[in-house]
């Protein structure tokens, strides 16, 4: 009996040790990749960037300066200590800026790059493994003046051409917006501030507001938080108009250095650690108040990165770099363009959670309704036919996009499985195995090349109201946003045993 008791105590101790090791390993490795985990920090860091159709600036709006801005502050002894001034936010071409080469002082696109880096330096928070800067609010105008010659075709400069399917009311349609600041204030125990504005340059901050009857475009992001309580709540509004029928508004967590998704230069952001598939998850609370109409491609999550078709990392060469996006659209009015009769809108194959391939011509098993649209990079040399290639003008380089729809096959990753999940009236806190899903999505690669490391440099939520035929309004809130790094299970087992 005594020997049996000794064996029992030894076994119990071993089990407790294993449990302790697992717990310790998880606490050490399941850490946040963002500087402000869950948006809990009272001192906020938030920035603003606006883009034209091809992710450049093109031309500054009058009296607005370069379309980059920030509000960054700490809370100290009941007061907000702001890090950025109105003068910083109004800086524009022709004005000196730290790090700016003299020959670039009048280059509108390169000036915006350096202004973002400068604002990042004012907002930066020292941290481990590296410092971080801010959440990014991204606004984009979908108008494209094909006669302007501003946007390259898959990275190649092309001359002006006749207007086609892209909206444009005429010369100047790719303009930057009016930007109005509501400087964050502390009222009682609540901190509140925001950005808003319009693309209509004959308007002003005084009359910029959400009005269904004024035929003006409008955007707004307001943030608020109780001191020492919970998460920041980011309230978003976006309104299209006849002149601006295609607008985009996202809240992004971008890499703290390197290329964020869709860009070809150094950026600043909130992600202080690399997000490599499959080892990360995303947690957020989303409440969609108004959907933005049938053309609103509302992204529960949009992730972006960049690697070349041969699997090599991007290096800024727009002729060979390729932006890669994956987007989960939760608007239940968004149809599946991928179908047995539309194979060119489907990826060549689907990969199940247990790594089985289902080819798109397998009509009995391929999950067509799980995909809205797939398009391949326009600079790829070995595409499987039939194929749709992505719009060659809306990024500085070629792009590849995988757009998903709610479907039971995504349930294992925590994604929505039914039309309407997470939509208006169904606010939820999501925990999404983004890294796991991203490791199994199809992305083009040249035959015979080593697989690319899928390291994601941008994670965002928001909507793209895609060429609406009437004025539309979208409204939503985001809070509790976090990105969690997960150590592979094999490593956990190695540590325990």
From TrEMBL:
Organism: Medicago truncatula
Signal sequence bounds: 1-27
InterPro entries: DUF7705
Keyword Signal on entry: yes
Domain DUF7705: 31-485
Listed name of the protein: DUF7705 domain-containing protein
Keywords: Signal
Pfam family, any one: DUF7705
């Amino acid at each position: 009996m005594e020997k049996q008791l000794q064996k029992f105590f030894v076994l119990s101790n071993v089990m407790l040790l294993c449990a302790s090791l697992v717990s310790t390993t998880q606490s050490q490795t399941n850490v946040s990749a963002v500087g402000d985990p869950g948006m809990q920090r009272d001192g906020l860091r938030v920035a603003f960037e606006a883009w034209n159709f091809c992710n450049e600036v093109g031309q500054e709006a009058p009296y607005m300066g370069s379309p980059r801005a920030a509000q960054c502050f700490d809370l100290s002894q009941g007061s907000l200590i702001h890090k950025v001034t109105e003068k910083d936010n109004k800086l524009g071409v022709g004005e000196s800026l730290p790090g700016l080469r003299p020959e670039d002082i009048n280059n509108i696109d390169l000036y915006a790059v350096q202004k973002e880096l400068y604002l990042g330096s004012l907002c930066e928070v020292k941290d481990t493994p590296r410092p971080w800067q801010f959440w990014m609010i991204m606004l984009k105008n979908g108008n494209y003046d094909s006669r302007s010659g501003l946007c390259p075709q898959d990275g190649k400069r092309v001359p002006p051409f006749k207007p086609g399917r892209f909206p444009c009311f005429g010369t100047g349609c790719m303009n930057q917006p009016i930007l109005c600041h509501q400087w964050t204030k502390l009222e009682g125990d609540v901190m509140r501030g925001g950005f808003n504005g319009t693309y209509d340059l004959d308007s002003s901050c005084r009359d910029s507001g959400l009005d269904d009857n004024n035929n003006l475009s409008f955007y707004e992001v307001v943030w608020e938080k109780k001191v020492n309580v919970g998460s920041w709540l980011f309230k978003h509004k976006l309104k299209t108009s006849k002149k601006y029928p295609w607008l985009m508004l996202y809240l992004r967590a971008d890499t703290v250095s390197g290329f964020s998704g869709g860009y070809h230069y150094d950026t600043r952001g909130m992600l202080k650690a690399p997000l490599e598939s499959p080892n990360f998850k995303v947690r957020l609370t989303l409440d969609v108040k108004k959907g933005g109409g049938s053309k609103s491609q509302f992204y529960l999550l949009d992730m972006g990165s960049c690697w070349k078709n041969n699997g090599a990392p991007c290096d800024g060469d727009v002729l060979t770099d390729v932006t890669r996006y994956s987007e989960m659209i939760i608007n239940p009015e968004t149809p599946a363009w991928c179908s047995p009769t539309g194979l060119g809108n489907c990826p060549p194959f689907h990969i199940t959670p247990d790594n089985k391939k289902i080819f798109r011509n397998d009509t009995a098993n391929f999950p067509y309704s799980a995909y809205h649209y797939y398009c391949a990079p326009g600079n790829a040399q070995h595409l499987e036919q039939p194929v749709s290639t992505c719009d060659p003008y809306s990024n500085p380089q070629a792009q590849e996009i995988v757009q998903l729809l709610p479907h039971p096959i995504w349930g294992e990753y925590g994604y929505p499985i039914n039309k309407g999940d997470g939509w208006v009236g169904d606010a939820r806190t999501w925990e999404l195995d983004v890294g796991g899903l991203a490791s199994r999505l199809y992305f083009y690669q040249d035959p015979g090349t080593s697989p690319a490391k899928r390291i994601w440099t941008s994670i965002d939520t928001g909507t793209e109201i895609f060429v609406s035929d009437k004025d539309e309004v979208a409204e939503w809130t985001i809070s509790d946003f976090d990105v969690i790094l997960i150590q592979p299970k094999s490593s956990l087992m190695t540590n325990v045993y």
